[in-house]
Automatic annotation (TrEMBL):
It comes from the Bacteria. It comes from Nocardia jiangxiensis. This is Acyl-CoA dehydrogenase family protein. Residues 435-513 form the Acyl-CoA oxidase/dehydrogenase middle domain. The keyword Lipid metabolism does not apply. Belongs to the acyl-CoA dehydrogenase family. Residues 176-299, 539-693 form the Acyl-CoA dehydrogenase/oxidase C-terminal domain. Keywords: FAD, Flavoprotein, Oxidoreductase. Its cofactor is FAD. Pfam families: Acyl-CoA_dh_1, Acyl-CoA_dh_M, Acyl-CoA_dh_N. Gene3D superfamilies: Acyl-CoA dehydrogenase/oxidase, N-terminal domain, Butyryl-CoA Dehydrogenase, subunit A, domain 2, Butyryl-CoA Dehydrogenase, subunit A, domain 3. Residues 352-429 form the Acyl-CoA dehydrogenase/oxidase N-terminal domain.
Length: 697
């Protein structure tokens, strides 16, 4: 078994693409009159390259990567069928070797119509039928192929087989369940590959097509569609990779990882394909263009996916009926060891005792470099700490201050500031709030209007700040102000201060939010701030702000952990009486629950990717914006869905008899609006993603 590193997987994918395009150059080839012979030539190349032998190493990550490439060119090479067939015949050396060398070229068939709608039948030699009710498989030679015109190109086919020479082999039920689960992953992956290619073509088109005197990619309707498609396709790709790793590492929850990936990917592929087709418009509607053939591929694969039963259980069945827990995406061994340590601490006492112990153990400054008194922890360990405390609903406010402000002070602060501020931050007793937003400036922070004018060793600040979370309890404010109103670029005229709130000239007006939390408007009238409280250079505050914001990639873990805990709270109630709460298999509530779980897992893998991109590359990456686009609307949708499942009991507040999680659902539904707009609305996040795709402003 060999898990490929990301760089190696990328190189393997590039190699597969180069090889396949020698005989199947693009999706248009799917409509070629010589498609059967071309597909046979592709199969020859797969054998020559060793792709038919990947089952020997359980190299599912490589198979999934190769299948995604076949989707991009609308080529139905049945690589997952070959992979699964070799696994089914692992104890039958001759059969397995015949499959690897191409003497037997199998396609797998399932169900009562198993010999209809067969993919790649013209290039195959045998059908392997999965006889799930008999715990067996039957392998038979194909004797006749009759192609059927339809959505699929190349055409599906009805086949006849030689039943007289067919061989039936007993297979354990769990092996058959595994086989079907992997086939489902393969179908979803190929659909995603095709949809992703269409999306890339649509972005290229949006960057070049001019309408109404402008490049169409500058229209928000187009750019936001592209951002949504980038989010969906990236999340689905990461989920597929995570599922592959779970299988290869033989985790107990690997099948649930696959079903979460399949559930999300099937919908994501359809959405991405249609949204991309809308951007391409008439250009992609005609068969001279790849998009027409890719459209067929996506919809054909998703249609066949629904014919592959999840006999090991779909997502809702695994979570509700089998009592499984949501699987954790891959983290380092050190991080998982740290998770065990944290859970033991959290279980050891009440919130106050746990927070005190966490401070004593140095968890507040976990991510600071050792030279600044921290532990120099990995990004994975940071994620685990954020997840576990938030899941346990333990407010670790001091950690938030240390995460947002500490690294920035270390990087941009003076030696005097480091000596004065870092010990307070490390104590976990640093109560502060962000002085960013203003009445007319929310996500558009570069255009803030609060002014600061130099007066000797001080600055005189006048203006107004809005929506200050926890400002009513704060002793400090992280304050962004404009110090150069004539700057050629708005970003260039901003300066940042970290200063106390207990001096004249600062007044607060409190507001109770829909969530019940207190937020405040800050009125600054001749507020005098010492220059010693300035962090970074004058007019260089945007660099300082950006540095602080990078930590939000880790803090995204807290939103995802909130939803995870809400899901577990809901599951605890539903498991007591599934029929009463969500109904029998196939009910809309069950389907909704499965999709909520899949979207949660998608947000988690994106959040992990975002945090790592900052840690490794030093950039911000688009994954953080993508994670927010999925996670924050999910909080709204999940809470509404839970209300519909549980009824009025879900709306009971903290302290009310019978409330769920002591009013957690009630609170998070009311707070969900803030999550969507806070820290940059999801529409702004879509704009950021669009820029990362190269779309014009």
């Amino acid at each position: 078994m060999s898990l490929l590193e990301d760089a190696d997987l990328a190189q393997f994918t590039k190699s597969v693409d180069g090889v396949l395009r020698k005989v199947w150059p693009s999706a248009i080839a799917a409509g070629s009159g010589t498609v059967t012979s071309d597909l046979a030539a592709v199969w020859d190349l797969a054998i020559e390259q060793g792709w038919t032998e990947l089952a020997g190493d359980r190299a599912l990550d490589a198979v999934v990567a190769a299948i995604a490439v076949t989707g991009r060119i609308a080529c139905p090479l049945p690589l997952m069928d070959v992979y699964v067939s070799a696994l089914l015949f692992d104890d039958h050396d001759n059969l397995r070797r015949s499959i690897e060398t191409g003497t037997i070229r199998p396609v797998i068939a399932v169900g009562p119509d198993s010999l209809r709608f067969v993919e790649a039948a013209g290039a195959a030699t045998h059908v392997i039928e999965l006889l799930t009710t008999e715990s067996a498989v039957r392998i038979a030679a194909i004797t006749d192929v009759r192609f059927r015109e339809g959505i699929a190109k190349p055409d599906w086919a009805d086949v006849a087989v030689d039943t007289n020479s067919a061989t039936t082999i007993g297979v354990a039920p769990e092996v058959l369940a595994d086989a079907l689960t992997l086939l489902r992953l393969g179908a979803a992956t190929r659909a995603l590959g095709a949809a992703t290619r269409t999306f890339e073509l649509s972005v290229e088109h949006a960057c070049n097509r001019v309408a109404f005197g402008k490049t169409i990619g500058s229209f928000q309707a187009v750019s936001h569609r592209a951002a949504n498609s980038a989010t969906d396709s990236t999340a689905a790709r990461l989920l597929g990779l995570e599922a592959s790793r779970a299988w290869m590492e033989e985790r107990a929850d690997w099948r649930l990882s696959v079903e979460l990936a399949v559930t999300f990917t099937a919908d994501a592929a359809i959405r991405t394909q249609f949204d991309s087709a809308h951007t391409l418009a008439a250009t992609g509607f005609f068969e001279e263009h790849e998009a027409a053939w890719l459209f067929r591929r996506v919809n054909a694969d998703v249609a066949r996916l629904d014919q592959l039963p999840a006999i090991g259980g779909d997502v809702s069945a695994m979570l509700v009926d089998q009592g499984r827990a949501m699987p954790w995406p891959t983290l380092s061994a050190e991080a998982e060891s740290f998770r065990t340590e944290l859970r033991a601490l959290i279980a050891s006492g009440d919130q106050e005792a746990v927070i005190s112990a966490a401070i004593e153990r140095g968890y507040v400054t976990l991510a600071w470099p050792e030279s600044a008194g921290g532990r120099g922890a990995s990004i994975d360990e940071e994620i685990v700490l954020a997840e576990e405390f938030k899941y346990a609903r333990i407010p670790f406010v001091g950690k938030t201050a240390a995460d947002l402000l500490g690294p920035t002070i270390i990087k941009y602060g003076t030696e005097e500031q480091k000596d004065r501020l870092l010990p307070i931050l490390a104590s976990g007793e640093f109560d502060f709030y962000l002085g960013y937003s203003e009445p007319e400036v929310g996500s558009d922070l570069a255009n803030l209007r609060t002014r600061a004018v130099r007066d000797g060793d001080d600055w005189i600040v006048d203006g107004q700040k809005s929506w200050g979370t926890r400002a009513h309890n704060a002793e400090w404010v992280w304050l962004a102000v404009r110090t150069d109103p004539e700057a050629s670029r708005p970003h260039a005229g901003i300066t940042v201060f970290l200063t106390r709130t207990d001096r004249p000239g600062l007044e607060l007006q409190h507001h109770r939010a829909l969530s019940g939390d207190i937020n405040s408007t800050t009125f600054l009238d001749g507020f005098r701030v010492p220059d010693a409280d300035r962090v970074g250079e004058v007019n260089d505050g945007w660099r300082v702000i950006t540095s602080a914001l990078t930590k939000e990639r880790v803090m995204m873990a807290t939103i995802v952990a909130d939803i995870h805990r809400l899901l577990d709270d809901l599951l605890a109630v539903v498991r007591e009486s599934p029929e009463r709460t969500i109904g029998a298999m196939g009910s809309r509530h069950r389907d909704a629950l499965g999709m909520f779980a899949a979207r949660l897992q998608a947000a988690r893998v994106l959040m992990y990717a975002a945090a790592r991109s900052v840690s490794i590359g030093g950039g911000t990456g688009a994954e953080a914006s993508m994670a927010k686009i999925i996670a924050t609307p999910l909080q709204e949708d999940f809470c509404v869905g839970a209300f519909r499942i549980l009824g009025p009991a879900a709306g009971l507040a903290s302290g009310a008899t019978g409330s769920l999680g002591d009013g957690a659902l009630d609170y998070h539904l009311r707070n969900s609006i803030k999550q969507v707009v806070g820290g940059g609305t999801i529409d702004i996040q879509r704009n950021l993603i669009a820029r990362s795709l190269g779309l014009p402003r």
